[in-house]
Amino acid sequence: MSAPVLRLAGVAKRYGGARCWWPLGQRAAATTALAAVDLDIRPGDAVGLVGESGSGKTTLARIAAGLLSASDGSVQWYGRDVRGLDAADRAAYRRGVQYVFQNPQTALNPRRRLAAILDDTLRGLTSLDPAQRRERIRRVAAQTGVDTALLGRFAHQLSGGQAQRVAIARALLGEPRLVILDEPVSALDVSLQAQILELLGELRARHGLAYLFISHDLAVVERLCEHICVMHQGRIVEAGAREVVLGEPREGYTRRLLDAVPRMQT
Amino acid sequence: MSTDGSSAAGGSGRLAGPLGRLRRHPGALAGLGLLALVLVPAVAAPVLALPDPALTAPAQRMLPPLSAGHVLGTDHLGRDLLSRLVWGARASIAVGALATLIAALAGAVLGLAAAWLGRLVDGLVMRGVDVLMAFPYLLLALAIVAALGPGLANAMLAIAVANVPFFARAVRGAALDIRHQDYIAAARLAGHGEPAILAREVLPNLAPTLLLLMTTTLGWMVLETAGLSFLGLGAQPPAADLGSMLGEGREFLTTYPRVAVLPGLVILVLVVGINLVGDGLRDLLDPRWSPAGSSAQRQGAKADARRVAVGGDAGDAEQPDGLPLLSVRGLDVDVTGPAGPLSAVAGVDVDLRRGERVALVGESGCGKTLTALALLRLLPAGTAQRGSVRHDGTELMALDDTALRHLRGRRLAYVPQEPLTALDPLFRVGFQIGETRRAHGTESAYATAALVRMVGLSAVPDLLRRFPHELSGGQRQRVAIALALAHGPDLLIADEATTALDVTVQREILALLRRLCDEQGRALLFVSHDLALVAALCERVLVMYAGRIVEDAAASDLLRQPAHPYTAALLGATPELGQPQKTLSVLAGEPPAPGARVSGCRFAPRCPRVQPVCRSAEPELVRTGDGRRVRCRFPLEDGA
């Protein structure tokens, strides 16, 4: 079996618990957002992370992307703790793990043109010259179905579906190995959701991408991911192959979640 | 979330640019006029052929206006008043503007540092700011001038320092907000360092806030400068600004009032002008601002009292029990666009029977929310509705506000999407339930305890003494439903009432709504974007596309065999649990925006079954054999 792209080993996150100003030195109560989570993502894997709000999905994803630091445990990029990476590996990790946010309108700077946002991203991640950057942006835009004529606009001048395509394009610019998708279709209508899901499937096949796909919608996760982790109150309560977790769930919580999904065939 | 047409209209309004909208903002235009009156001569002072403002001529003291060579006369030292006013205004404006600039820059640096450099810096900066704010600003400025000595430059510095806390606080707040935006995280993911993020991501977003604060403060600063000069701490003779002129003229207030009144007037005009421009700028930079406001809505409502549409085939004309509970005919909703009203909802004809559960589905921007609000005549400002809405025989469009308010709540009730914003965060749940129960003069249909029991909250300890934030999302939604039920309405209108909730909670709320309607014979209009969800709750489904009802059918028929291609596309695009291999039908493109020109059927540009004739004229909503209504020339049929 190939080595995981990213491994979370005993990752925990606690908030609060800092020393107070007053009474001096006393500690505030801490809340645990994430309790000792282990997760491996192998090359080309699509791992679905499901659970209800407050279960720690986004915290986990942000730690995996390096946007948050863990209180405990380690995040390993190809077997090495990301905190101990040298400059070159650190840059590779930065390029290698990208993130797509739920709401593309807030994930794209409202006061900058999309072309500038994409160009900046590429400048930050690579040392390509301007001509190469233009070429790469053109190519990725074509793959994600973004009309390059739109790139002269601002995010608010795009529809939600178009903006999410731009956000996905941005995530792909640095040729990542793992893309973390945090509810990427939840803000979209079903017709756009179907378009984006199809796009994500295509991109994964074409680039051999690994996905960490977060969603509260089990039907969406089921379509895209072969592996599913169910989160509840900061822990992964059940994990395994799609057919097993959704077909023969062992945990009561997973069963409750499955039962609650509205179905069209009644 | 479906803010529907109004947001689309705001978006396109922003395209037109703030400058384009300036013409329709009378306040800002008036402000610009007043400002120009003072600003133009002040800026042009050196090139205007004015006498030296400091040139004294004791022989010519207190000349009346329109004297030879002195249009506004002279003051007690024989100096030309007009010249002094123009040069004085120049000094006042320059000092005010410079003080604003200094305060804004220093405040921005401090605020940004507080927001960005971690808790220690934040604590130090903000406590320092608190200390400065503990002194009244004038006292602070006086103390600074007292230490530095009087003079215009020192007065400016004093005013700037006294206003730094204001800017620091505002910038810190704005920067903290920006800091948590996803695009900042995205910039970090692109490997950019903090200086680059500050320069490229934060500053452009901070600039409008800062600009706005500066314009709204400028007038204040001019006034403060005048205040210090009036007290003799600012401009020193022979130089003058408006404040010191006012101070000098005060001695002659009874004998020669114009010497003091004229600079006072100039200050007034200047400050009012600046403030009007500042207010205008705030409106114009806000993409949601619309010049038409609620007047369009009032006109719309008035027009309707006269133009109540005639019948039409709307669902169930032959009612088993007489009148339908709610009867809507020819309902149109227009939203205000940059170039006049845009049609967002058009020609909605529908009847709701007593006790019927009906869903209104469609993609966002199709007019679902506008339609739901129009049924309650609760549309926001900048929209207008026409047509007829009859509830139990009463024409809502003909009711005045008081009668309407009585009908809403007592007979018609609304359950919002996000109960956290619908409940008042400052009042306990018990108080809010009690207030709603007493809202219509008479005692409500149910006692508080009965309401709490009905929505299944009896088991929550101390429910009535809790604040909304102390409840979970599901519990809050139950409280919102209890409020809606208080007066025993016969129609509940719920707009995406479960969208913000987790699936397990959503399921409970759906069961609750269903039970409440079943047991008490209450009708429900459930607005949602989720077909799978409404299938579990409603008996009948109305599908909306681009402001039109395109299909109206029993839920089971609709799911088994959709007739309109749009309904079919929606169903085909919905992923279903347990069927990961189902090919999702991908409906290309997006719905047309309100007011967009589409010739013929509005779905034609996206329709997989489109024929040339579809683009010629819009099809009617026609009744088919099995009691459905479809707005399509070529509906899908069984086996098609």
From TrEMBL, chain A:
Mind telling me which Pfam families this protein's record contains? ABC_tran
Keywords attached to this Swiss-Prot or TrEMBL record, sorted alphabetically, are: ATP-binding, Nucleotide-binding, Transport
According to the entry, every stretch annotated as the ABC transporter domain falls at 6-258
- Output the InterPro entries linked to this UniProt entry: AAA+_ATPase (IPR003593), ABC_transp_ATP-bind (IPR050319), ABC_transporter-like_ATP-bd (IPR003439), ABC_transporter-like_CS (IPR017871), P-loop_NTPase (IPR027417)
Superkingdom classification of source: Bacteria
Give the family, as the similarity comment puts it.
Answer: Belongs to the ABC transporter superfamily.
PANTHER family linked? D,D-DIPEPTIDE TRANSPORT ATP-BINDING PROTEIN DDPF-RELATED, TRANSPORT ATP-BINDING PROTEIN
* Protein name in the entry: ABC transporter domain-containing protein
UniProtKB/TrEMBL annotation, chain B:
Presence of the UniProt keyword Cell cycle in the record: no
Q: Which residues cross the membrane?
A: 28-49, 91-117, 129-149, 255-278
Tell me the domain of life: Bacteria
Q: What is its EC number?
A: 7.4.2.9
Q: Which reaction does it catalyse?
A: a dipeptide(out) + ATP + H2O = a dipeptide(in) + ADP + phosphate + H(+)
The record's annotation in InterPro entries points to: AAA+_ATPase (IPR003593), ABC_Ni/Peptide_Import (IPR050388), ABC_transporter-like_ATP-bd (IPR003439), ABC_transporter-like_CS (IPR017871), MetI-like (IPR000515), MetI-like_sf (IPR035906), Oligopep_ABC_C (IPR013563), OppC_N (IPR025966)
Question: Subcellular localization, per the record?
Answer: Cell inner membrane; Cell membrane
Stated membrane topology is: Peripheral membrane protein; Multi-pass membrane protein
What are the residue boundaries of the ABC transmembrane type-1 domain, all occurrences included?
Answer: 89-278
Transmembrane recorded as keyword:
yes
Q: Name the SUPFAM superfamilies on file.
A: MetI-like, P-loop containing nucleoside triphosphate hydrolases
Query: Major place of localization?
Result: membrane
Residue stretches making up the ABC transporter domain: 328-571
Recorded family membership: Belongs to the binding-protein-dependent transport system permease family.
Q: What is this protein called?
A: ABC-type dipeptide transporter
Question: Which species does this protein come from?
Answer: Thiohalocapsa halophila
